[in-house]
Amino acid sequence: MVAFEHPHPHNISAPTTHLELPFFGDAHRSLAQDLVAWTSEQRVDESDDRAACRNWVQRLGSAGWLRYCVPAAHGGALPALDSRALVILRETLAFYSPLADFAFAMQGLGSGAITLAGTPAQQAAYLPAVARGDKIAAFALSEPEAGSDVASMRLQASASPDGWRLDGEKTWISNGGLADFYVTFAKTDAQAGSRGISAFVVDADTAGLDASAHIDVMAPHPLATLRYAGCELPHSALLGTENGGFKLAMQTLDIFRASVAAAALGMARRALAEAVAHAKARQMFGQRLADFQLTQAKLGEMRALIDAAALLTYRAAWLRDCSTSQGAGTPAYTAAAAAAKLTATENAQRVIDMAVQLFGGRGVRVGEVVEHLYRDIRALRIYEGASEVQLLILGKHALTH
Ligand code: COS
User: Fold this and answer.
1) Do domains 17-135 and 138-243 have the same CATH topology?
2) Is the pTM of this model over 0.85?
3) Mutate to test the pocket of ligand 1, among 171, 198, 250 (most ligand atoms within 8 A of CB)
4) 246: CA distance to ligand 1 center in Å?
5) What pLDDT sits at residue 13?
6) Superfamily, domain 252-400
7) Is the pLDDT of residue 3 over 90?
8) Is 368 labeled as catalytic in the residue annotation?
9) What is the mean pLDDT of residues 349-353?
């Protein structure tokens, strides 16, 4: 495997002019500038995705960026999770290194349910360590037979004398085998569908938990199947209310959906920047590739797809942060986040494909930035709610509001 050398040619830096839009405040603008400066100086060998992910978590923690994943009361940067800050962080990190974005995002997603519903003791035990990069977090929801259909999960949590006992399997778990703890969703009432699921914090060293089955994917990042064989958990491992796990999972995903859109946006912006640089440099038929109207039309289309994705992404983040009537927890916000995730990931796939096409043969050479982005983007249309799930959410919302 050829490493995705990080960062790519330094003459390309992440754009920031869109931050002048009224969705953002001055604190967001300076956050973006500091982050662009920091990220463009990092050098991480990404040939081993697990080692690189650890390295990124440590760097992101030391530099203070992970503090945006948790609230200030537990070592975070701001009083509450700020969706626009998360969007800026993910968009910028993904522009430079999709793996850096992954490392950042999983700290947030893996600890999000503890931020939302943890007891003070749970929050104190996990959140400051997540913010420092001392503990790596993971979110264990999917199962071999329960991806989009979360409610059909089978991992069973039964009451035991000292607490709970977990038996079953999770799969496609990001940071599997690397994480220090897994926020795990399990059935506590097998007959109750989505109302019979509860969340638990499971430490990686819990007896009976096996995270050694790593899964290799087209854009390498830490991923594994988890086996829970009679994992005994204390009462204090229950996260949130008993049988309240489905809503907690949905609320956690809601926070981060706009940020998945932002990651896609960062990758699309990088592909456009690469395509523009290539079009200006490449000579063919006695002129620059950029001088052909066909090229200009393609770049124009990429730009429009990116702008559409950006506006939906920033709108969703702004609604969550600032709107009382359409903000966090409202169906209108869920729909806005779904529209952002759907559009940004689908548009980014098209933009990156167009960039590969503009690069011609070089576009498919292993090790080219656009070749790597082509593989990186694909999973974003599937994970944290596939495009089809976002369409269902939007369709349901259209019919009921
Ligand atoms: N916030 C809070 N509550 C929510 C919610 C949200 N975003 N979405 C649903 N709920 C609640 C509903 O209000 C409903 O509550 P009641 O039981 O009190 O009525 C309950 O959860 C069930 O909702 P619904 O009937 O809409 O659930 P469905 O089983 O129809 O599933 C989808 C809805 C498909 C949208 C959901 O299962 C989903 O998002 N699946 C994708 C999951 C996913 O992202 N998987 C990837 C794993 S992470 S990589």
Assistant:
1) no
2) yes
3) 250
4) 7
5) 87
6) Butyryl-CoA Dehydrogenase, subunit A, domain 3 (1.20.140.10)
7) no
8) no
9) 98
